[in-house]
Amino acid sequence: MKKLSTLENKIDILKERDAIKNPIFEIIAEASKSLKTESYVIGGYVRDFLLDRKKSKDIDVVTLDDGIELAHKVAEMLPGNPQVQFFKNFGTAMIRYKTIELEFVGARKESYSQDSRNPEVSKGTLTDDQKRRDFTINALAISLNEKNYGELIDPFNGQEDLKKGIIKTPLDPDITYSDDPLRMMRAIRFASQLHFKIEEKSLDSIKKNSDRIKIISNERIVDELNKILLTDKPSIGLRLLFETGLLAYILPELTALSGVEQIKGQKHKDNFYHTLQVVDNISEHTDNLWLRWAALLHDIGKAPTKKFDKKLGWTFHGHEFMGSKMVKKIFKRLHMPLNEKMKYVEKIVLLSSRPVILAEDVTDSAVRRLIFDAGEVIDDLMTHCEADITTQNKAREKKFKQNFALVRQKIKEVEERDQVRNFQPPVTGEVIMETFNLKPCREIGQIKEAIKEAILEGEIENNYEDAFNFMLVKAKSLGLKVSKN
């Protein structure tokens, strides 16, 4: 980034690099002038421009008067007269125009009560509005007014904080975070997204105010958590959530994994930091949010299943099954989707150790069963298992990777030959009923299960002829006779 010094240089560089060259800014300026008010571009658009990040499609505009009135005026002047969505109670309005989303709000002052993040709002100046912003880097504004069009307004040295890579609040952080505790998670999210450091005073304040996160809705918390998980190195944000105490309120199942216990000289690894490494590893290979969630939760069953055995040492028997059951409780508590996305995470967690065990003895029948149980998630499951390799021993790491490569190859071969992914029995219940003149009964289920097991064990091929002949043999053992009709 170019080094910026005087205000004149700032303005020149803004104009040079076309921060507000888009004709839409001229329309907003013209609309503001006709309403005899002032308006400014503020927040993320300005921040990302100065960081040389991809230009944001979300543009926030603050006006010294009525944001809704300005939005309607701008819509009148835009080609096609786009619709204005407005929220009178909040004094905000939004226009979607081509690929851009414009949000308008009147400059305001805010005051908060102790038990709510919803402020009492009154009309304010631009400086008042910048004071209420969460961070100095988000308080930067560019004038859209005739007298100083294109000028950067930076009362809190946000530009300097951008250059230094610092997350800092415009006001006392205790006030900023206590007023709106979601800002604590936003600070951590920006630190993770931008690879910035949170100013020490601000970080201490988050630790001090961490319990205030309890007044924030789970939906808003999850939204920030998802954004942290989707960064290129989620462990930055997850570690900060842990160190500040926020994670204990959000995902206590994760914090329960932290620490190392030792008995009789035997200790287990710190499963919390192992989890962070797994999430980072998988993030190098996929942007799938729900696969990243599966990596985050894959070991949560280890805390409740941890035991010390005199002969075996530390054990976590059944932690995958326990963890998969815990997934639903977490999704329900955090108001996350209780649909196919949750079931996907449950399945990855439940099967997370199967390929590891399989890698020691790659038999066709075991591979068929894995493909059958995993279905459409088989490839993602393998990606997860490869990310789960966190050993520092290079020889062991190499061996694990070679074993998983062998499992992947075996899956491909078995799948091409036996076609057991999303398995459908070659012989249907209707065929069984017709062949033996049966009404619905348990024997039909027994025959179908026996056919499935025979195919998975490799006793018969996955085709109609072999399955039909096997059915006849199985039915005979159950005392059934072929219908003469």
Automatic annotation (TrEMBL):
- Origin superkingdom: Bacteria
Residue span(s) of domain HD/PDEase = 267-375
**What is an example of a Pfam family matching this protein?**
HD
Please state the span of the N-terminal signal peptide per the UniProt entry: none
Asked whether the UniProt record includes Nucleotide-binding among its keywords, one would answer yes
**Gene3D superfamilies in alphabetical order:** 1.10.246.80, Beta Polymerase, domain 2 (3.30.460.10), cca-adding enzyme, domain 2 (1.10.3090.10)
Q: Which cofactor does it need?
A: Mg(2+)
| Keywords from the named record | ATP-binding, Magnesium, Metal-binding, Nucleotide-binding, Nucleotidyltransferase, RNA repair, RNA-binding, Transferase, tRNA processing
Q: Among its keywords, does the record have Magnesium?
A: yes
SUPFAM superfamilies to which the protein is assigned, alphabetical: Nucleotidyltransferase, Poly A polymerase C-terminal region-like
Q: Which family does it belong to?
A: Belongs to the tRNA nucleotidyltransferase/poly(A) polymerase family.
State the protein's name: CCA tRNA nucleotidyltransferase
- The species this protein belongs to is Namhaeicola litoreus
